[in-house]
Amino acid sequence: MDPLEETLGKIRPHVKSSLSNQSAPAKILVAIEATLKEQGQDITPVAYYASLLTTLQEALKREHPSVNLDEGAIVPASLYLLALVLPYSPALVIRSKLGPLLDLVAPLFPILSGSAPPLRSQLSLFGSLFVALDHHSLTSTLLLRQSFASILEFTIDPRPKVRKKAQEVVVETLSSPPPPLAIHPYADQAAEYIVGVLRAVAGSPGKAQTIEIGIWVCSFVKGVTAAWPPVPLLILPSLSSPYLTSQSYALLSTLLQSPTLVLPAPTILASLLKSTPSSQSHSQAAPWLDALENTMVAYARTDGDGCAASLGKVWGLVWTWIDSDDTACRLASERALCALARYCISQKEILDTISLHEVQAPLADRKSSMKGKDHAKSTSLGTIVVTLSGSIHSVSYAKSIPSLLAILTALISRLRVPVPSNLSSVRARRTSAAQSLLADLIKYVGDLRTAKGFEYREKADDVLGMAIAVLGPEVFLGILPLNVLPDPDQPKNKNNEGRAYLLPLLASHVTNTRLSHFTDNFVPLSEKLFDLRLKAEEAGRTAESKVWEVLTSQVWACFKGYCDLAVDIKEAFTTPFGRLLTNLLYTQPTLRSSILQGLRTLLQTNVTLSTSTAPPQSLLDSFGISQVEAHANIEFLQSIAGNMVSVLFNVFSSCASEERGLVGEVIKAWLGVLSPQDIAATYAKVTGMLQDALKKPSTPSPGAVPVSHTTLDILLLLLPFLSLASLQTLFEMALSKELMESSDAGVQKKSYRILSRLVEQGVLQGKKNIIEHVVKRIGETIESVSQGSKRDRIHLLTVVTPSLANTQLHFIPSLLPEAVLATKEVNEKARTAAFDLLVVMGKKMGEGGVLQRSLVAGMDTSAGSEMAADVTANIEEYITMISAGLIGATPHMISATITAISRLLFEFKDNLPPTMQSELLATIIVFLRSANREIVKSALGFVKLATITLPISIVRPQFPDLVPALLGWSHDHKNHFKTKVQHIFERMGRRFGWDDVLQNAGDSNVDGLKVLENVKKRKEKAKKKKAANREEEQEEGGSDDDVAPKPTTGDAFEDVLYGSDSDVENGSDEGGEAEPRAKATRGRPVAGRGDPKGKQNKQNKRTDTRIRVDNDEPMDLLHGGAANTATADQKRRRQPGQEASRFKTDEGTGRLIIENEPADTDMGGLGEKMLRITSVDGFTRGPKGQVKFNKNTKKRRAEEAQDGDVEMADGSTVDAPSAEHKKKKRTEPVRLGQEFKAKNAGGDVVRRNQQDPYAYLPLSHVGSKKKGGKIKYNITGKR
């Protein structure tokens, strides 16, 4: 639908509005459209623009010199409409008529300044005008610059809405420079104005109004940082207002973060250093620290050496805030110091520090002599290291330990620079600066990590993880050994304590190192751990054996990191190591995932590096290997690929179906380096196994996968690597009767999947005979299709249809019934595939061609028959073919046809003529009056789709039939018809206006009018409430952009058909219960519909849950409480004591104090709640908050007695009982032995933990008495 028409369509219904500011634009719009129709002109944006310009010109002439700006006047209404139309007008037209437009609207700024609504329309008009103009028009037209200057003045207007609109116009203008300019021509003008305002604010301290203006300007400039011109911004002294000073610092931080904006960082740094806040100015310190951080980072980008020269002074100033009592200041200092450590230390500074302090006397050693420390402090980096080391050891910095650890992490990250050495081999990892300068500090953090009572283990883990990544595992484990194996000969002390917590850190941080370190150290370690596990199991120590098993798994979890860009693959990946991996893959399922991930990483990283375009020397310096060595590694892996693929195939066949995903991915990776001869031999072997399995089917053992399924899955993995000849033989095999018509649903499904993959690889491209054979073969197997293979069969049709030639379109009609009926499948993926197939067929028909009806299967081709003639293929003919299903013999077929037409109408509505759209809508309206609910359900979906997407001129003429047909289901709760009808009426009222909807309801249909009036009232009430909330948010400083977008499913058709942005969906028209499903799924994607790959996404989801172990004690994972030690995000879970925290507690006993609510004493002592229940119009609320009116009221009883009959739910009437002849309520006899009666049968049943039927009579029932009457008992259960 045309967006302009949709916008104007919301204005027209307000012609009869009682509000003049709504009715005036609507009347002008209707009058302009009537005039254009009388003159025979097309109603286009240009016509609207010219007519409104003329209307505004005449109104200004008539009202000159005093312009009427009241609500309902012509000038404000014309400006409002002109601001709406201008964005849709062609830019060439706007430029050609720029002079007359500016002559009219530019002089209006002084006149409109006192009236906010027309002023906002004027600002919106200029916002669209500036974006549409070119560079010449913007720079050569004086009125434009004057108008922009006027708009700049309104950016500090005291009226919030005017100020916000002016700021939006300036931001949009500066963000859209005319091509080919990168910065808008008006950017300098805007910058000069803003700088002038800020200088005026700085020169007028103490004035509240001036301070407020400064705050507005600072907030406004944050939105134009991308378009800010390179002008000095040196107005950051300590201003009169602390809040304004903080805002100035925040503004400076935002400007400095812009990657395209170049500011004089040295000058700004000097200004910031002069305005250092005092130790008590916590409110200014945090933004000042942020500004200082961003200034230094910007300085480092432009002049690294100059930034390094200022590093020592800046570091000292920022360090004074690291132990601040104010949390915000301490965190701001932490961020600033981390940024300084990561970006502002130059490589020259690092090398100078290392050369001044040799490895024999580490800087971080606390026991170093004072001379050594003084020598270390001769460089800024040395001072930083010594200061950081002393602070971590100092008690006075205890509260700042988390910040100090974060700073140390950033410093280690920066000191990954390799130290120059004379080592000849590049394969050995060169010593890094972090190893030389921070080794002792890293060891201290490791010891601190295991100390009892240490609270910041996660921060310490960050430090150690970064150290592993920078130093490498070999060096790191030399500093902090694992010590996981028990050694009874050595006494337990600080040096040999166990550090099993390092294994997960190694697994997540090891990369680009020697694989031989893993084979020499971790493989023997895993073998010893495995032996300890066996001994513990033999001794019956289950918890201990579980601990050794977990440690073994953690050891092998490091294998993937060692395979990531390993520098010694040919030396480390030996034959014994390959045998070990094979043995573990076969015998240790718990280690299989880690080994498979390592094998995949080993190959993929080398393939990626071999195709890198980076300079070889750069790769050698960064990773230790270049493209040449990566190619050599691939050749080595190719030599062992045959054996590895065979092992992986064996593992694949031994896994269950749900565990084959990772194995299949690894097989694909290794098949990519396998030679063509090996691929062909593997294919021949697998196909032979498949044929043997089909000829001699065997029953697999429980839980095992049949051989035929496994071989077909392997063929799917082999497909991308097969030769053309192998692909053709596989294609013929998949079309055979043994596969496509197999009684095994799994074989069918996989054969269809193979055929789909083959077609996608282009096997059928340009082969008309084979395509015809495939389509015929698919049609022949329709009777033998199993339920589980329908989705893959439909997908095959979807990929085959585009390959049809223009002379083979006669196959489409024969395939249509299956596609249409598949839209009603229970399987959601099958339904989605059916919709895709219908759309693909429609696009194929839309490409043109000839549909030979004589070749269509089952078509009447007798002489003289209309169906014998050939027709031209197009969308209309396609829709007509599908519409034949509307005369189907079953409701299921009719419903499926309506659903299919809905999908096609949504997809091809722009290609269908209006007459066909109108005919389709009129036809579906007939089905709304059907007595079959399945048909009506699909028809309601079609009507909703038509109401939202079809042009107004097509839907509105159908209202006399459509509205009464919908009202017929407005009281039906089954299948949620009532709520669906409400949503449709709401959309009708919103788009077409309530007058047309109410007018077509019929004067005699009183109930229908009530329904529509109720929906209208609820809609208006919700609209007012939303507007009130929006105004409240704006007054509080919020923005319209802060409103969360409505959730979508990702499919436009699903959003229109099933989604709803209804404002009345929380209740019904008569206060009934809302639609449960709509309420339950609102705010989140509907399962299976919004996320067609939901299952896959769920499997691929990764969480940050880790096992929390206190004091490094072994944890029994078999214990029931082990899951409680997981550090997952449990905000959604109800926490213990959550409800109790709402009540007061007695300080002495700790008991909860629950205060009684004061009783209602008004209204005769009944209270407001009681009156709501017992009054004539009383109501109650259900568990979900829905309103239920009280039907048994005095007023209703009087009306029922007067009418003499009561309307029942099914439409029948019964005589209303008189108050004098009420029958006594019949007392139902107590049926003894009722607990033994069957639910659905007529006899009794024997249940577990219960006596036999009628084995005894409970004396409590027989002997009990009730006051006021005698209880009747029935032993036989008969009346």
Short description:
With 1279 residues, this protein is mainly α.
Explain this structure.
This is Ribosomal RNA-processing protein 12-like conserved domain-containing protein. InterPro entries: ARM-like, ARM-type_fold, HEAT_RRP12, HEAT_RRP12_N, RRP12. It is found in: Nucleus. Belongs to the RRP12 family. Its main location: nucleus. The protein has 1279 residues and is mostly helical. Helix content is 58%, strand content 2%. The protein contains 59 helices and 10 strands. The strands form 5 sheets. Strands 1-2 form a two-stranded antiparallel ribbon.
The major β-sheet equals: 2 strands, antiparallel
How confident overall, as mean pLDDT? Answer: 79
Going by helix content, strand content and strand pairing, the class is: mainly alpha
> Rg from C-alpha positions?
40 Å
Give the number of helices.
59
> Gap between N and C termini, in Å?
67 Å
Strand content: under 5%
Widest sheet: strand ordering:
1-2
Quaternary arrangement of the chains shown? single chain
Shape: globular
Question: How are the elements arranged and paired?
Answer:
Elements: H1 3-9, H2 20-38, H3 45-63, H4 74-85, H5 91-96, H6 98-105, H7 109-112, H8 116-132, H9 135-140, H10 142-154, H11 160-174, H12 187-203, H13 208-221, H14 242-256, H15 265-274, H16 282-302, H17 304-319, H18 327-343, H19 347-356, H20 370-376, H21 380-393, H22 401-414, H23 433-449, H24 457-471, H25 473-479, H26 502-509, H27 515-538, H28 542-557, H29 559-563, H30 569-572, H31 575-587, H32 589-610, H33 616-623, H34 627-654, H35 661-671, H36 676-695, H37 707-718, H38 724-734, H39 737-740, H40 745-760, H41 768-780, H42 790-800, H43 811-822, H44 828-846, E1 850-851, E2 871-872, H45 875-883, H46 891-908, H47 914-928, H48 933-949, H49 952-955, H50 959-967, H51 977-992, H52 994-999, H53 1006-1035, H54 1052-1057, H55 1076-1081, H56 1094-1100, E3 1144-1145, E4 1152-1153, H57 1167-1174, E5 1179-1181, E6 1187-1189, H58 1194-1203, E7 1205-1207, E8 1213-1215, E9 1230-1231, H59 1259-1263, E10 1273-1274
Parallel strand pairs: 9-10
Antiparallel strand pairs: 1-2, 3-4, 5-6, 7-8
Helix pairs in contact: 2-4, 3-4, 4-8, 8-11, 10-11, 12-13, 13-14, 14-16, 15-16, 16-17, 16-18, 17-18, 17-21, 18-22, 22-24, 23-24, 24-25, 24-26, 27-28, 28-32, 31-32, 32-34, 32-35, 34-35, 36-37, 37-40, 40-42, 42-44, 43-44, 44-45, 44-46, 45-46, 46-48, 47-48, 47-50, 48-51, 51-53
